[in-house]
Automatic annotation (TrEMBL):
It catalyses: Endopeptidase action with P4 Glu or Asp, P1 preferably Glu > Asp, P1' hydrophobic and P2' Ala. Its EC number is 3.4.24.78. It is an enzyme of class 3 (hydrolase). GO terms for molecular function: metalloendopeptidase activity. Residues 1-13 form a propeptide. Keywords: Hydrolase, Protease, Zymogen. One of its GO terms (biological process) is spore germination. This is Germination protease. The keyword Protease applies. The lineage of its organism: Bacteria, Bacillati, Bacillota, Clostridia, Lachnospirales. Pfam families: Peptidase_A25 (PF03418).
Length: 341
């Protein structure tokens, strides 16, 4: 989504950044609800932006739906405990978003403690029956968008490539094999980019959806941020699908419920920021009289900078860590509900 600030074209894929641009008391917008929280002692800050109606959608420049944001500086570090905590929180929020689509009740951590205590007195067979995921036997397709050979864009391919796929097990061991073991029928695909295939990702996925008939699709992609501080430290989840490349002005056909015919959930992490955003923030931090000394500087800079994007120097290590967090979180959400509710 692109917008103008002092003649700058500033792009961001993050709903929370879109909302932050509105001034006033709390930046309140008709048709948009915001909730922010952080669990006691947690390293993860949570934000939920809900776009409730068409007015909110027009103001935000995004479709109606739920946009969850997890922010944690630990995503940029190497602390194993923090990475595990982030993966658990991501898993919990992903699972709740998916279950909301299925109109299933959300289980709170307090309720889960009671469930675990109850399960502790059960036999192994009874435990297995009680330990239902909500996704057993469900056909789920994970899509890793992006170019695996361009590091800032490789998040989707690296995450999808490390998933524990199970759809083939029903074919090998008989129909119902996965459901009996509380497993989803999980499949994954990396469709590449148009320069590699000559096809839109939406075209490829429509064929895959038609043949494999998933009940829901999870799309993973690298995003563009408005703020440098959110690079590699923020995860956005949404139930609205995704328009690949929109954050960098490279508009492609959307992957949505309307285009694919099934619910589409998007998971994204910003890995690039526009150079215009960096220049704008730098200039905005100066005193007003310094800016006024050079009228028209915005127009002079924009043509050279509007298509330039910046990524951190350690992006390869960050992509490796983040793809691991996302992969672990997806596994926990779909295979191990007791760890993330």
């Amino acid at each position: 989504m692109a917008r103008k600030e002092n003649n700058f074209e500033v792009r961001t894929d993050l709903a929370v950044e879109q909302r932050e641009r509105f001034p006033g008391d709390g930046g309140e917008i008709a048709g948009v609800a915001l909730r922010e929280w952080r669990e006691s002692g947690s390293a993860v800050k949570m934000s939920e932006v809900q776009i409730l109606d068409e007015h909110g959608a027009r103001a935000m420049g995004k479709p109606k739906g739920v946009y969850l944001t997890l922010e944690a500086d630990g995503m940029a570090g190497n602390d194993e405990e923090e990475m595990e905590e982030i993966a658990r929180e991501f898993a919990m929020q992903l699972r709740r978003l998916l279950l909301r689509e299925q109109n299933e009740a959300q289980i709170t951590p307090k309720e889960l403690d009671g469930l675990k205590e109850f399960q502790g007195s059960k036999s192994e067979k009874a435990k297995n029956k009680e330990n239902r995921t909500g996704f057993e036997g469900k056909r789920i397709l994970v899509v890793g968008l992006g170019n695996a050979f361009v590091t800032p864009d490789a998040l989707g391919p690296r995450t999808a490539g490390n998933l524990k796929v199970t759809r083939h097990l029903d074919g090998q061991f008989g129909k119902g094999f996965c459901q009996e073991r509380n497993l989803p029928l999980l499949s994954a695909i990396v469709p590449g980019v148009m320069a590699q295939t000559g096809m839109e990702s939406a075209e490829i996925l429509r064929g895959i959806v038609r043949e494999t008939k998933p009940e829901l699709v999870i799309v993973i992609d690298a995003l563009a941020a408005r703020s440098v501080r959110r690079l590699g430290t923020t995860i956005q989840l949404t139930d609205t699908g995704i328009h690949p490349g929109s954050g960098v002005g490279n508009h492609r056909h959307g992957l949505t419920r309307e285009s694919l015919g099934v619910p589409v959930f998007a998971v994204g992490v910003p890995t690039v920021v526009g150079a215009t955003s960096i220049v704008h923030d730098t200039i905005s931090s100066l005193e007003a009289w310094e800016i006024e000394e050079k009228p028209g500087w915005e127009e002079k800079l924009e043509p050279e900078l509007r298509n330039l994007y910046v990524t951190p120097p350690d992006i390869d290590e960050r992509i490796q860590r983040i793809s691991r967090i996302l992969c672990d979180g997806i596994h926990q959400a779909l295979f191990e509900p007791e760890t993330c509710l």
